[in-house]
Design brief:
Layout (H helix, E strand, L loop, with lengths): L4 H11 L5 E6 L2 E6 L2 E7 L2 E5 L5 H4 L5 E6 L2 E9 L7 H14 L16
Antiparallel strand pairs: 1-2, 2-3, 3-4, 4-6, 5-6
């Protein structure tokens, strides 16, 4: 198992009422795309959230939160939450809400299709 299936189910339950949610296997885990943009994900047993980079320095000081370091490169605007940081429903919802609030401002992860010239 590349990611925690129980955590994946928690995320699914939290996002179930939203339109335009798509699950994708990515980065050795599972990513939840919202409106064609990476929003939250699971890598092993941690929750990944894409948040407003302007909030980054403040939130990484919170319990159970750290900057995502993908291939040893720190990624501002992407955070990882461990089990301690999402133990309660309230804390879990807090992290998901940060990602959902940023989603309309985030750049799309999809590249536009090139139009063919005839």
């Amino acid at each position: 198992m590349a990611y925690d299936e129980n955590l994946a189910n928690r995320v699914r339950e939290r996002l179930v009422d939203l339109p335009n949610i798509e699950e994708k296997a990515m980065m050795g885990g599972l990513t939840f795309m919202y409106n064609n943009k990476m929003c939250v994900g699971i890598i092993k047993d941690e929750l990944m959230c894409r948040i407003n980079p302007e909030l980054h320095d403040k939130v990484v000081e919170e319990n159970g939160c750290r900057t995502m370091d993908f291939t040893k490169r720190l990624m501002r605007g992407y955070i990882m939450i461990d089990e301690e940081g999402m133990k309660t429903k309230k804390s879990f919802d807090y992290w998901i809400d940060l990602a959902l609030v940023f989603n309309p401002l985030a750049k799309s992860s999809k590249k536009p299709k090139k139009q063919s010239v005839k």
